[in-house]
Amino acid sequence: MTYKELSEQIFRKKSYLCVGLDTDPHKLPSHLLNEKDPVFAFNRAIIDATADLAVAYKPNIAFYEAQGPRGWESLQRTLEYIPADCFTIADAKRGDIGNTSSLYARTFFDPEAAGLNFDSVTVAPYMGNDSVTPFLAYEGKWVILLALTSNSGSADFQRQPVGEQELFEIVIQTAQTWAGPDRLMFVVGATQADELSRIRELAPDNFLLVPGVGAQGGSLAEVSRRGLTTAGGLLVNASRSILYASSGTDFAEQARAEAQLLQKEMAQYLSE
Amino acid sequence: MTYKELSEQIFRKKSYLCVGLDTDPHKLPSHLLNEKDPVFAFNRAIIDATADLAVAYKPNIAFYEAQGPRGWESLQRTLEYIPADCFTIADAKRGDIGNTSSLYARTFFDPEAAGLNFDSVTVAPYMGNDSVTPFLAYEGKWVILLALTSNSGSADFQRQPVGEQELFEIVIQTAQTWAGPDRLMFVVGATQADELSRIRELAPDNFLLVPGVGAQGGSLAEVSRRGLTTAGGLLVNASRSILYASSGTDFAEQARAEAQLLQKEMAQYLSE
């Protein structure tokens, strides 16, 4: 999906909601456990219930990987099921030396390798240029680079002072020499709203993937006020608050209700 | 495997060789392609040929992941086949917020999750404390944290100046407040030999996992002179130079010859 297409989806759906598919097999409603692939059955119901409200889906790869080979099969089925008008994110936080990053890129971007064809993958910046650019070798695919994450440990290294700046600012500036905003997004935690204005100055046109609204406590209003651009420019992720809104047979209905609350708030911010 | 056991293996085998199982299905000798699981058949032959010369094996997870579900099966078989006296490293470069890192830890450390029971996993430090410590919740398991990597991109962020130091030094110092040398190693590229003495001062007792000898051009002599401790303290990895020493039916024999060259050199440095 291109920058322009993503932007158009946002204004068409009046939403910059990304639904995080952090699907925990131990948290599934019990009536799904008899399905052949309960994780996929759950994801399918969540996607059916939210696809008109969300512009992106973000499977958290750890949840699938922890199930071994069958987890990767659930992931394949889930990805195939996501409608074509939704942007897809492999939240994998990969990054290694060049020849290895090339293989991680192949995993998530080349359907003939592992049966996956994501639009984008999250990448950790620590290893620098040649750990990131192999993901950009796949035309039309995106890198979503960790910048300032939502967790408390983000203070340990991301906020170390480098000259007059902090490390995450160096990451944002440096990475922009590797790719334009049509191929590069940044992860900025919603719990870091105070820094969002500064980040928006450093990266005026890049989409920001913002986790941390909901279970982690970030404010959608603050994130939107500081992060929205004329192209949209934000993908705000919610996972647990949507997926586990109910543990009963009405889980999909309740997931939709939660997604709708967020979407309605987003529609308002987009119109302002 | 404990620190003491690992150290004992090093002096018993007169080796601190780690064989990197970066097994590329496109580089397998053609006579293996008729096997049911050619990747495993290759790894088994490499392990048979090198197990008395190596103290550790390091499957590079990207190579397995890029094969989809069947890659994870090859990885399971390979890990089960590695002899118990060898330390095992999941070279995965993982790291995410706490609940997600817990799942990555479960993937590699809990055999009931994904059928894997590694001794250790490589972790990227960018997300800080709560992205790393979930891996330490598994008793007796190790974190091998990226410090100063072997690739050219290591200069982009790892070597950024933070006060009087560089970022990788902050990583090494900070991480030592999270775990002792009995649970924590650092990745230091062999191509960074100039910095190894400084790193050894900052982490006098931690094992260092050193890739980059061989195909990447690092010097075993330099690494050993600056990195060895009375407990050994080094795991020097070689992957491509061993795995692909020959592409013929003699690949395992040639792999052994390459491993033996390294082991003999290591035996000499250990005795000095």
Automatic annotation (TrEMBL), chains A, B:
Gene3D superfamilies cross-referenced by the UniProt entry: Aldolase class I (3.20.20.70)
The keyword Isomerase appears for this protein: no
GO molecular function, one term: orotidine-5'-phosphate decarboxylase activity
Keywords: Decarboxylase, Lyase, Pyrimidine biosynthesis
Orotidine 5'-phosphate decarboxylase domain location: 16-255
Pathway: Pyrimidine metabolism; UMP biosynthesis via de novo pathway; UMP from orotate: step 2/2
Catalysis performed (reactions): orotidine 5'-phosphate + H(+) = UMP + CO2
Similarity remark: Belongs to the OMP decarboxylase family. Type 2 subfamily.
Protein name per the record: Orotidine-5'-phosphate decarboxylase
Species whose genome carries this gene: Spirosoma liriopis
Primary gene name: pyrF
